[in-house]
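All the exercises in this workshop are built on plain-text protein records. There is nothing in a record beyond a sequence line and a structure line. A learned vocabulary of local backbone shapes supplies the integers on the structure line. The question running through the whole workshop is how a given chain folds. Here is such a record, shown just as it appears in the course material:

***
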Amino acid sequence: MMMLEDLFQSYVSVGLMVAFMCVLISFFFRSKDETKEPPGPKPLPLLGNLLQLDLKRMDRSLVDLSKKYGSVFKVYLGSQKVVILAGYKTVKEALVNHAAEFGERYISPSSHDFSGEQRNGIVFGNGESWKEMRRFALTNLRDFGMGKKTAENKIIDEIQYLIDVFERHEGQPFSNAKSINYAVSNIISSIVFGNRFEHNDEAFKLMITRANENMQLAGSPSIQLLNMFPLIFQWVNNRMRLKKNVAETRKQMKLLIGRLQETLNVEMCRGFVDSFLAHKQKLEDLKIMDSHYNIENLVSTAGNLFTAGTDTTGTTLRWVLLLMAKYPQIQDQVQAELSRVVGDRQVRAEDRKNLPFADAVIHETQRFANIFPIALRHQTSTDVTFQGYFIRKGTPVFPLLTSVLWDESEWESPRTFNPAHFLDKDGKFVMRDAFMPFSAGRRACPGESLAKMELFLFFTSLVQRFCFTPPPGVKEDDLDLTPAVSFTRTPSPHELCAISRKGSQNE
């Protein structure tokens, strides 16, 4: 019996030795690509690279680090290793050429607060639910006029409401932030819900206020610290406000959806919500109950579209009017082109091809304003070797859009406002490859075509009607272009004058 036990123990020992040798051999014979991680600054225990980052403008800190460590490098946000992608060529290669490997969404603690336990919708979703919701959203947004004549007419109607608001100030200084957000939000609202809201609708105003505040909260240092050290910072005040805002908005979305559900006619869908409800009803009639078409997913997706369709376009319009006030000679050139090509009639989307300078100003505003300095966070869906570096599955990846839109190898004067970036020597509009404000690949903004039409029609219609100037006593040079602290890069609070051009146009 003792001999059998000794024999068994010897076999176990040999087996363990063989297994150990196999591990060693596999380690030594792994390819260099599988062991070569991206470079990066040395992290401190627990803190990671926190002391090397400006939490109010993390993109700038990361751009500075990229100059030392290259276009693919890693940083530690607390104990979390994150890979940073910098520069146009690298970001494009990852998001477009390796779209599947870099196509998942990384869910940070603050992202979890936005998306909830189920992680529904098209912004923070992953897997089959995200694929189905994005496909359905893109198809139906097109059906309801995104980028088409139907949407153009809705935008023009809303522009007139905004012009009326501006005219009521009679050339006196005022903040245009809320009125612009209300007007822009009504475009996506009419597509999603099938109707616009009055600018004095309190529930509508509260939804926009919460959406704007959430962007500010998401970019605050305390929320950045929450994402790095969730156990320590989970009770910070900004997080509590963020969660409350999200809960209130979801409650309001459910009320809006409930009212539409009560008056639903599947033969005459008024907007995206109706189409979703009609499709949900069709599946239920077929006894298909386990689908992605449920109310929670609808609330998330409608909320995603509402917020994205309000904040980014509204913020870009605020930037372009501020830039016109700061650079009046550029505003003069836009107005001269409009007078020559359009005259006093309403600008239409088809005029874009004949307004190259105005088009260049809009694109340059998007580039210079750099609304999303860091694209919404990605993560790798599988182990991937990228530009010679091995990145494990599930690694958070930050595409640094600042480094694309301000790439010194792609733009002649990246840190200055220069519409010539989008004009050739003959003054014709030229698109640039490194123009990537909507991100790229599988996670690119689904509302890009609508946003482009809105920006063009709102901007040209407003500068056709008004001349934007600083308040009396403020020089153009004194207008501050320092952005506010926010997840999106928004202008700091300011006032402008909108001087009517009716008299000058008739002279």
About this structure: The first strand starts at residue 72 and ends at 77.
